[in-house]
Amino acid sequence: MSALLGKDPGALRSAGAHELFARNRVRASRGGLPLMPYLGDDQLTLLWRVEEHEALTERAWDASRAEAAVAAIVADAEGAVGDAGWPGHPRDDAAEDQSISSLYLGSAGMIWALHELGSSIDAGGMVAGAIDRYRAAPDFADRAHAPSLWMGETGLLVVAARVGSSAADERRLRELVYENREHPTWELMWGSSGTMLAARACGLDDEWDESAGLLWERWDTTTDLWTQTLYGRVSQILGPAHGFAGNAHAVRGYVNDEALRERVTRALERTALRENGLANWSPVAEPVKGRDLVRVQWCHGAPGIVATVGDLMPLELALAGGELIWRAGPLRKGPGLCHGTGGNGFAFLKLFTLTSDERWLDRARRFAMHTIEQVQRERERSGRGRFTLWTGDVGVALYLRACVRADATFPTIDKL
Ligand SMILES: [Zn+2]
């Protein structure tokens, strides 16, 4: 085993930019460690950090147990909704009575997920209520950005259109997509690659095409990356939530896959951290010591890159990313999609789709059994469920259902 693999001198729990945003403040790890401990230079070349992961459950795959967990999560969510949506969760730094309406942490994501999972909730009426609440008091107050797919009104309007709500408003959605076409983040969470997913899902082909052209122009031919201006920092972010992988995915169809594959391959081969048949990627192309700690999550690192653009990179590199995710093991942070065990498992489903090798499906399903235990553990700790699409229990339910069906389609990214 190489000295670089999983070494642990820093032991800092570090969050992604969107995690920091969702928490509204940066804080030290729950273990009471200092916020910025000294990190040696080799922190930048680690493939993963042992302390971020935990041992995989011994429990074997059991489809009926997975389906029972899905049913329990759906029933719990159906029973927990109030007049102002679902209660916030301490792990998202949201007060119990805090009403969030948008897709990432709020009602729009919950409604979309429950609709996908076959719940008989009144999705149309509920999303109409959430849109009213958003318009009266936009999420994230002084940082509100209505065009954002994840944090703004756009996500709500897509869900309204997808569930057939009377609140669907194509004219307003067109405006929001147009308004966001040159947003300086050049990423999915706030910027145009997110609104492009919305435009595509709702058949706004002209708006999609205009945004795609502008995003394509910003794809730097020297680095084969985009440059993000996000929360006051200028950097080149690699994962799907805030940069490269999400943008490359969003421009699919603007040029053919061969042209995309060439550029994606160049960028990912150049930026990969490789060791002994394993591969991972730092959050940014040029990491800064002490802030860009390597992660193995959907939002930052191999899982999201493989799950999102695994078909646009050399198979050997995607497989090396998959091996890294398996070797690192489930995430301690939780079972969810964005930075949890379930999101990581989607990379295995993608590799199963690409190779038909049952070993990847088996690995995805082992992770699935682990997510069930993580949901249970978290429920015992906090006394209730976590009601968000991207960090919470319904995201896990979507992952469990994907494992039952051996379907790599990533919620809202591949199908919104
Ligand atoms: Zn995340």
State the gist of this model.
This protein is an all-alpha fold. Helices cover 45% and strands 3% of the residues. The protein contains 15 helices and four strands.
| End-to-end separation | 41 Å
* Number of extended strands: 4
Instruction: Please report the number of helical segments.
Output: 15
**Distinct bound molecules:** zinc ion
Strand portion, in percent? under 5%
Mean pLDDT: 91
Order of helices and strands: HHHHHHHHEEHHEEHHHHH
Helix content: 40-55%
Oligomer: single chain
Main sheet, how many strands, which sense, barrel?
2 strands, antiparallel
Poorly predicted runs are 1-15, 22-40
Helix/strand-derived class? Answer: mainly alpha
Topology of helices and strands:
Elements: H1 17-23, H2 63-80, H3 107-116, H4 123-136, H5 153-162, H6 170-179, H7 192-201, H8 205-217, E1 228-230, E2 233-235, H9 244-250, H10 257-271, E3 273-275, E4 278-280, H11 302-309, H12 315-328, H13 341-355, H14 358-382, H15 393-405
Antiparallel strand pairs: 1-2, 3-4
Helix pairs in contact: 2-15, 3-4, 3-5, 4-5, 5-6, 5-7, 6-7, 7-8, 7-9, 9-11, 11-12, 11-13, 12-13, 13-14, 13-15, 14-15
The structure holds zinc ion (ZN).
Structure description:
- With 416 residues, the chain is mostly helical.
- The chain is built from 15 helices and four strands.
- The strands form two sheets. Strands 1-2 form a two-stranded antiparallel ribbon.
- Strand 3 (273-275) and strand 4 (278-280) form a beta hairpin.
- Helix 6 packs antiparallel against helix 7 (192-201), helix 13 (341-355) packs parallel to helix 15 and helix 14 packs antiparallel against helix 15.
- The longest helix has 25 residues, at 358-382.
- The radius of gyration is 20 Å and the shape is globular.
- Mean pLDDT is 91; it is low at 1-15 and 22-40.
- It binds zinc ion.
- Residues 16, 18-19, 241, 297, 299, 338-339 line the site of zinc ion.
